Amino acid sequence: MKNILILSSKNGSNFEAIIKYFKNRNDINFKLLTDNKDAYVIKRAKKLAIEYICLNKEEIKEFFLKNKFDFVVMAGFFKILDKETIETNTFINIHPSLLPKYKGLNAIEYAYVNNDTKTGITIHYANEYVDEGEIIFQKELKINPDWSLRKLEKEIHKLEHYYYPRIIEKLLGLNVLVVGGGAREHVIAQKIKESNLLDTLYLADCNDGFSSLGNKIEYTDYKNLALQAQKRNISLVVIGSEEYLANGLVDILNKYKIKTIGPDKNFAKLESSKLFAKKIMAKYSIKTAPYKKITSINKIDKYLSYFKNPIIKANGLAKGKGVYLSEDISSLKKELVYFLNGKYGISSKTTLIEERLYGEEISLFSFWDGESLLHFPLCRDFKQNEKGENTGGLASICPIELDYMTNEKLNIYKEKLLKLLKKEKIKTPFIVYSGLIIARDDIYVLEYNVRLGDPEAQSLLNYIQNDWLEVFYMCSIKALSSIQLKEGKKPITTIVMTSKGYPNEIKKGVEIKNIVPLNNKTKIYFSNIIVSDGKILSNGGRVLSVTSDNRSDIYKTLNDIEFNEKEYKILDS
Ligand code: AMP
Ligand code: GLY
Question: Is 498 exposed, middle or buried (CB count within 10 Å of its CB: 0-12, 13-18, 19+)?
Fold first, then answer.
């Protein structure tokens, strides 16, 4: 149980917002302390069935010398507390300005009469001085010149009521659930585990290679998963892969008011329907390869003739195998027949024929919190194997540097993307993964995904030095603008160890031995393994990946792993 005391002298609208926000939490005890027996906040406390006490100045001091809380939250409390009192507990305060501007009373009014173009709110640790102490969080508010003072006050209070509970939640320590079982989810779980903001980590659908990082949750369906998350006071669900998104996990979590990062089922079509993505790109003049939709075998010859170098692409999700690239037109035709006959079920019954673009590919990950977009350093994914077949990804590097001109083109693309998200009124936070190609002296979008990439995540999450739980959480509460990215000093590489034959037929259940990272800056992340009778066995095409800032350490680690089906890509050093 966590104990929070709220201090309020008057109206108590922040008090009410906090209590209501945490109403489903069974692990927090709230109490109200007021210094004003006529305060309206007492009425609110009675209505919300929250225990309250009313004390005078001397009694307050005595009270704090005797009582200890996890946090003391000041919500419109007008008594100044002395140093001795303040040092008994951790006090937090909220103030309606961007401190250090306008300390003390009437902060909103000052911003208004001074015709400021912006103001905001500040949440900070309190000390014995008024509105001082270390700043925890600030949110800016642009002031519309047409607003009345009343309107500005209303907008400020809206921000307070939204952010104060959410920042308190973060300070209390977060229970987090990571959903998914690949190496991407392994690195996400590992980074969250290392965060100081974490209370308890939960895992759903993890693989045996990282199950020891958290408490496993077994579930029957998404509703059941949401209910279990609620029971465990989970504040944030981080979803790794596209299937959950396309199948509506976010919609269900939203229904239960559980925060997550991912589009709802409708906007997940950006990844799960190539046609949807093409249409939205056309609407915002985002450059992409010309295409034609095909559903009937009779049209194959006619449609293929429209393209110089055609490729084919299943409209729906196909586990990263939905693109067929071949310069040999007869094998392309043969494959197109398989696609249209349902090689990937409904996903390929509608297929796109598309012009092939030639150039360097880059992956751009951008976090969208519903208001602002945070772009991460570029990554590269190496998708093609030695036979030229497309795979889910065999290696990755982060960061990738671009020349000046290409970077300018990228900036234009970023502006278009922002416009798209704003105009389409996308309110759910999610990760935009732009699969880009530098072709014809420009930037083209090959594909959109709505999640982190695998194996890009392994490199990106190790390159960026921020607290990743903070990045995910702040994204989930529309507070990304407070994140400053801290880049690492050296580029990071990830190499995937696959089973022979991947992306086609592979042998499962083959024992793997001697999985030992060469040193502590070499990381191993598991994708498809199971542990059976104490043995580690392969269980899929991509088995594990090795990440480091030193390529030779990666290759030494891979080399020492004993696995009869072992294959991996060699990148130039
Ligand atoms: P997608 O299924 O759209 O996610 O595409 C997966 C991969 O297929 C991309 O990362 C590219 O390597 C390749 N690809 C897709 N579209 C094209 C294209 N028009 N030209 C060249 N390669 C493509
Ligand atoms: N690396 C490709 C993907 O995650 O889709």
Answer: buried
